[in-house]
């Protein structure tokens, strides 16, 4: 059982929530308060940032901080916020995949570093689409349309009332995380996360199995045994192939989207031309 399944079973299923994504994180900056208590203190826990939705209706989107302490396999729930308390998601760098991101809530700001850039990108993408679905559903509840009223494409939407909550703002995030190619990106990120965790697990196991004398002698002779080097080369090649395939899929998706919008514009122009021609052909008596 992987970590996300274990967290879901222990923390979220008993509370009637569905876990969407969970990533391992660490703080990017140290807290200023009580720094003298943390001095010389070794980190003895892992921190996971989780995104979940409630099974009840109307569904609530929640961000939960979960910890697992050293020497135990059990998880402990810590802080939790609703998406209405989330004011901003800062992706730090909109031009490339990076593990750093910020979450700005009503009364606090958390600066995080994910275990890998792929984990951060997957979390931001899932969070963005969850926020979009939540706010669209909330607008439908606050402004229910009458049975005969239909939404006209391109028509201006009603402005929010002064008391309506502010929606979550995403800044410095890559455009691909907020586009339509959600499923393609998710497959790529999950594969990268799997390869990264597999590499870290192999490195950790190698360090535990080697005695100190062997570690010292091998560090002088070669950085790693042949089997580990071979596996590392295979994993690097797999990661490279995965990235190349992901870029080709993204280009194909962009091309398909461009063709779709072009066809839509052509259909709208043809419809307008047809209506104009029909009006000109009407007899003068009509």
- CATH architecture term of the domain at 3-29 and 44-140 and 166-179: Roll
CATH class of the domain at 3-29 and 44-140 and 166-179: Mainly Beta
Bin the helical content: 40-55%
The gross shape turns out to be globular
How far do the termini sit from each other? 75 Å
- For the biggest β-sheet, the strand order reads 4-3-2-1-7-6-5-8
CATH topology of the domain at 3-29 and 44-140 and 166-179: PH-domain like
Mean of all residue-level pLDDT scores: 76
Poorly predicted segments: 150-156, 158-163
Radius of gyration: 25 Å
Number of strands: 8
The sequence of SSEs as H and E is HEHEEEEEEHEHHH
Helix/strand-derived category reads alpha+beta
The main β sheet shows up as:
8 strands, mixed
GO biological process, one term: Golgi to plasma membrane transport
Region (Disordered): 140-164, 204-229
Pfam families: Sec3-PIP2_bind (PF15277)
Protein name: Exocyst complex component Sec3 PIP2-binding N-terminal domain-containing protein
Question: Tags for this entry?
Answer:
Sec3-PIP2_bind, 8 strands, globular, alpha+beta, 286 residues, 47% helix
């Amino acid at each position: 059982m992987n970590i996300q399944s274990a967290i879901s079973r222990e923390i979220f299923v008993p509370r009637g929530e569905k876990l969407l994504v969970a990533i391992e994180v660490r703080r990017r900056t140290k807290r200023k308060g009580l720094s003298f208590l943390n001095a010389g203190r070794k980190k003895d826990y892992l921190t996971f940032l989780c995104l979940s939705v409630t099974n009840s209706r109307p569904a609530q989107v929640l961000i939960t901080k979960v910890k697992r302490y050293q020497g135990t396999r059990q998880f402990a729930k810590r802080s939790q916020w609703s998406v209405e308390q989330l004011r901003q998601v800062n992706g730090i760098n909109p031009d490339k995949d990076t593990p750093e991101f910020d979450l700005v809530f009503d009364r606090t700001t958390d600066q995080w570093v994910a275990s890998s850039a792929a984990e951060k990108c997957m979390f931001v993408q899932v969070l963005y689409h969850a926020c979009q679905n939540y706010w669209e559903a909330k607008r439908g509840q606050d402004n229910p349309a009458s049975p005969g009223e239909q939404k006209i494409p391109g028509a201006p939407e009603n402005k929010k009332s002064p008391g309506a909550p502010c929606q979550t703002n995403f800044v410095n995030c890559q455009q691909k995380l907020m586009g339509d190619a959600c499923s393609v990106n998710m497959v790529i990120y999950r594969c990268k996360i799997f390869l990264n965790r597999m590499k870290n697990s192999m490195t950790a196991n190698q360090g535990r199995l080697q005695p100190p004398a062997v570690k010292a002698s091998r560090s002088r002779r070669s950085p790693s045994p042949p089997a580990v080097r071979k596996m590392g080369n295979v994993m690097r090649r797999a990661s490279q192939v995965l990235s190349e395939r992901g870029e080709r899929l993204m280009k194909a998706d962009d091309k398909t989207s461009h063709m779709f919008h072009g066809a839509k514009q052509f259909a709208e122009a043809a419809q307008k031309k047809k209506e104009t021609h029909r009006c000109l052909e009407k007899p003068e008596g009509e």
